[in-house]
Amino acid sequence: MKRLTAIVYGRVQGVSFRHYTRLEAQRLGLVGWVANRPDGAVQVVAEGDEPALEKFVAFLQRGPAMARVTDLEMQWQEATAEFSQFGIRW
User: pTM of the prediction?
Assistant: First the structure.
């Protein structure tokens, strides 16, 4: 199990990015959270198995239909098992 911390830049707020990120994470069996940042980016913390996280990264690189991702910063760590579901933080 791995942990991905990602910051997604571009047109990622106001385009349902958090909603679709949560749906994709749930579909892939991941746990963690997604939140808007004050700088206009979106931060994501997700834990799960590596193949599912790799598919999740592919989603984050493109986002939902209305989004335009310009950059994705990622950091990988061992999972902490602190989450039981994937949610949206406000």
Answer: 0.96
